[in-house]
Design a protein that fits this description.
This protein is mainly beta and 136 residues long. The chain is built from two helices and five strands, in the order αβββαββ. The longest helix has 9 residues.
Length: 136
């Protein structure tokens, strides 16, 4: 009999499949990357973040859990709410202005994470609902 394969999981591996309770969460942006869409006709801009806590209750049940979502170059309108929540004045969102998505890395915002049924599996979904971090 051959030696058994040994599996080891990182913390991210263990929490990545968890379904979050739908709520507003404080999220720190860890990275922004881009890749061609499946059909190659547009670009997906991926945002990888880390949940810090429930932004309304302070609950840390999903602390340090990853969340990933994207914007697509064919429809960038949802990215405006993302930029506004990160502090970009709405008046600066004009066709003449350009924005570096890498400037979001390390910043925090509140993101509404909901549940979505995809291919028979319940998963987490960012449906482009953002708000700035509230300071009280």
């Amino acid at each position: 009999m051959a030696d058994a394969t040994i599996w080891q999981f990182s913390k991210k591996d263990l929490v990545s499949g968890k379904t979050y309770d739908p709520a507003w969460y404080r999220v720190r942006v860890e990275s922004v990357s881009e890749e061609p869409s499946k059909d190659g006709q547009s670009t997906n801009f991926w945002v990888d973040g880390t949940v810090l806590f429930n932004a309304d209750t302070g609950d840390r049940k999903f602390e340090d859990h990853p969340i990933r979502w994207n914007f697509n170059s064919k429809w960038m309108a949802p990215a405006t709410g993302f930029l506004i929540a990160l502090g970009t004045p709405e008046s600066e969102l004009t066709p003449e202005n350009r924005f570096n998505p890498q400037a979001a890395v390390g910043k925090e915002l509140d993101v509404y994470i909901e549940n979505n049924l995809y291919e028979g599996r319940l998963n987490n979904k960012v449906n482009h609902k953002y708000r700035p971090v509230r300071t009280t």
